[in-house]
Amino acid sequence: MSGKAKVIISDLHIGAGHVELGNALEDFNVDEDFVAFLDTLVDRSETEDLDMELIVAGDMFEFLQVPHVDSFEPGRKYPTRDYSSSSEEDSIRKTRIIAAGHPLVFQALHSFMKPDEPRRRVTIIKGNHDVNLHWNGVRTIMRDSMGATGELYNCLHFESRRVHREGLWVEHGNQYTEKVNRFDDFEDPRDPSRREQLALPAGSRFVFNALNSLERERYWVDGVKPITAMIWYSLVFDFPFAFKAFLGLLREIPSLVWESLPWKSGQEGALGREEQEDFASVIMDPVAVKALGRQYGSHPIHRRRFVQSLGCISEWDYSAAERSDGEEINSLEMEALRHAQVIQASVGGALEEVAAAKVEQDDIDVVVFGHTHDAFVRALPGGGFHVNSGTWVWHRDFSGETRETWRAFWEEPERYMTDRRLTYIWMDYDQEGIPHPRLLEFERAAEDFGVGEEVRSWWERFLAWLRGWGS
After folding, report:
1. Could you report the per-residue pLDDT of 189-233, keeping only the tens digit for each?
2. 361 Cβ contact list (under 8 Å, min separation 6)
3. Strand order in the sheet with 375-379
4. What is the largest distance, in Å, between two alpha-carbon atoms of the chain?
5. How large is the angle between the packed helices 88-101 and 136-146, nearest 10 degrees?
6. Which of 155, 404, 416, 469 is deepest in the core (most CB within 10 A)?
7. DSSP alpha helices (H): ranges in 162-221?
């Protein structure tokens, strides 16, 4: 009788591919590494006679950055309307593009699967970036592209939200964090008023309405952590870029922005609708934005008023505006970092609370999430483990860095983009059938990291920061 092991990965964000042909929205460019990784798993399965299950804990695919077109041109800048539909028909178009863009990945998954002992199967859980896996037509194309038909049919499974068996609870995790990434009904995410479309949350709409454009301008934007500090540093280094990020949120989630800001135009009170429209008209005017940028860069008092007008954390030390120009900039930057670290801890704590509640159930020993792109294995005080499988796309935390590091990154981002941690969870089972997780990293001697640090995805920090404006 074969032994068994689980291997858990998440957040690959596999998109349309063809980076070499000009697709600026593809974040997954380690196809050959992924093939080698699966080859290594196959070798171990055969050598040690291990039944093996590869579980993907959400966001394996990046549907929000793939256009629903019949013929994909990698170097073309598609309009927002070519990304926004989530119907089954358009999701199938996206799926075909993804499969065509990463043939090595799909072939490797096919080669991994095995119906005979030692058996090997693949289980894919959907996340907020690949919720399109809800559609039967999408799953059929995925199955055909992986060759999981015939005798391999039962080697591929799609889960609507979670895996709950064999001492494990595996889920993407977006339903427990920021509101803008939650679905009203994640298991059946169809729009009640338009059943042919999915009811995408504000965070998803922000990606194709704003982030795709920002990423073409700054290709590293969704890999920098924390996004809060990145936005505030951009006010110093690239004011127009910062305003574009704010504008994207104002357009997509105006109620979140307007209702949460403690607007203070010299006195207490909410910003009126007429003032809101005036402000929006200014930030949509390129000439006005450039003028504001010049004022921001040269006038300390203007910087203070601008920060106040955006409602940025009322407890900040605005007396810094009375100091010299350089000192005040540094104060704002350092405060941005401090606040980002507080947010980081709060969101990590929310998932930790969920994990602790799950392990109180008699049949759960290990809770695994993805979503935050932070890789760690953490023992819970009451027993059991809270685990995150991390990500295979570029990811870096800048929360402890100095202003000089931020400036160097802004000027030469490519210096910082070589680091990738190809992390995964290896789950052994003891003689009593209890799972024991280890966090490993492919191609780096596969050594156990132990406990990792809290690192949050840029979107989580950005939205948590906006929520904190009203606190």
Report:
1. 999 999 999 999 988 988 888 888 888 888 787 776 545 556 666
2. none
3. 162-165, 168-171, 366-369, 385-389, 375-379
4. 75
5. 20
6. 155
7. 202-206, 212-217
